[in-house]
Design goal:
16 helices; single chain
């Protein structure tokens, strides 16, 4: 029997302001009060439907025709319109098919190389110094993403510039009461963001030009492995049709998506380890036993089970993709409920990951919970989303992040004050307000 979606008794304007002012607290409140789903009326907009049951979240994400992605609009459209994380239907299937091989196999060597370069930079002073941990992780992961996925290492200087652009974007996209303004109210875009978006587009075009020139000199019988080479080679395929700026949109999208969630998750996991020294000691011991003086390699992953559990637990508590956002393309059934056409649908990893119905001691950082349960068997664990639009690079990110976590913890004491993980802001990803300050120095043995 079909059921009407329940809704909170408070007035719509009250809930709109609560959601816009503190989305995390609002979602946690809805998670605690409603077992399956809740519809929140928003003045001047379609209702906000929050799905709190992980089984219904899986169902919604498995049906992109009924619950589609939200098209790029406003500031987001200035960066990319039709990248893989935005596209749907035939275009999405074409692009996913072309790019898929770039994420298969043991393509984590660049993580090992770049994390060792970072370790050398950190080791040079041979004393403790204060750094912005998020900026450091961004500098590392954006270079990895550009080298592995795009075939071009953008270097430290441009990586730092990219971090600044992303900081500006975070401010522009941060949720606020204006996020739930009536649809008829125009959206203002800051000049700073326009310049940042132009910087990202220009960097994307530069990378494409450089990669195209290199491919012209390479043996065409040699199959390309990086994502950009696959996209460029597909231009000559008569069955492939690209719209204007399609490749630029893909590059800009993966410059962002290919690094940001990993940079954020490493930042938060290293911060959690700083607050839990016994867990950090166990990661360090495992890394010293497995890696020794060797450079991290893909083959080491099977020997780092505890480190992988630690990283997965960091993803649970601080999922960089804290919610998936969809819209109901028409009147749609979800479980026993009917979702009205046009509804804005939120599928919140943040609150589901912290729900005591699905996790014992949900706010506790406890990597051993993944000794008792396989992450793949827990429907409430969704750090990389699920369904056909789940993260194409999830295994690539897990592998590289685990190796990075092992090497950095083995080599350095990274101290992060607890307060640094409290001032987190809801943009499309879970970002700190002004970086994460950390004191970093070589490990002192004995």
């Amino acid at each position: 029997m079909q059921q009407e979606i329940p809704h909170p008794p408070e007035a719509g304007i009250v809930n709109a302001l609560r959601f816009g002012s503190d989305p995390f607290r609002f979602l946690e409140g809805m998670q605690a009060r409603f077992e399956d789903i809740v519809s929140v009326p928003i003045p001047g907009r379609a209702p906000l439907v929050i799905v709190t049951n992980p089984e219904l979240i899986h169902e919604a994400l498995s049906r992109p025709a009924a619950f589609s992605r939200v098209p790029a609009q406003g500031p987001a459209a200035l960066i990319a319109n039709q990248g893989l994380v935005q596209s749907e239907g035939a275009l999405w299937r074409q692009q996913r098919s072309i790019m898929g091989p770039a994420f298969r196999g043991k393509q984590v060597t660049a993580y090992a190389n770049t994390v060792d370069e970072l370790a050398t930079e950190w080791r040079e002073p041979d004393t403790k110094e204060t750094r912005n941990l998020h900026e450091e992780m961004t500098a590392m992961t954006i270079r990895v993403a550009s080298e592995i996925l795009l075939g071009e290492d953008i270097g430290r200087k441009r990586a730092e510039e990219f971090h600044e652009w992303m900081h500006i974007a975070g401010i522009e996209f941060e949720f606020s009461p204006s996020t739930v303004r009536p649809n008829w109210l125009p959206q203002q875009i800051s000049p700073e963001f326009k310049r940042a978006a132009e910087g990202i587009r220009t960097l994307s075009e530069d990378i494409i030009e450089q990669r195209r020139a290199k491919l012209a000199d390479e043996d065409r019988d040699q199959p390309p492995r990086d994502m950009l080479a696959l996209l460029l080679r597909a231009e000559s395929d008569p069955e492939v049709t690209y719209s204007e700026n399609q490749i630029r949109d893909e590059v800009a999208t993966f410059l962002i998506a290919g690094h940001e969630t990993t940079a954020l998750s490493l930042t938060y996991t290293l911060g959690l380890l700083a607050q839990h020294p016994s867990i950090r000691d166990r990661v360090r011991s495992e890394a010293e036993s497995v890696l020794g003086n060797e450079q991290p390699q893909y083959e080491h992953l099977t020997e780092l089970p505890y480190t992988k559990r630690v990283y997965r637990e960091g993803l649970r508590l601080y999922p960089p993709a804290w919610a998936a956002f969809r819209q109901a393309t028409g009147k749609a059934r979800l479980g026993e409920y009917t979702v009205p056409a046009g509804s804005a649908v939120i599928l919140p990893q943040w609150s589901v990951h912290r729900d005591k119905r699905y996790f014992d001691n949900p706010t506790q950082f406890d990597p051993t919970r993944w000794e008792r349960r396989s992450p793949n068997s827990v429907s409430a664990y969704l750090p990389f989303s699920t369904g056909p639009h789940s993260c194409i690079g999830s295994q690539f990110a897990l592998s590289g992040a685990a190796l990075s976590l092992a090497r950095l913890t083995q080599t350095f004491d990274i101290d992060v004050p607890a307060a640094e993980l409290r001032d987190l802001r809801p943009t499309p990803t879970l970002r700190s307000h002004d970086g994460v300050s950390a004191t970093i120095g070589p490990v002192r043995h004995g």
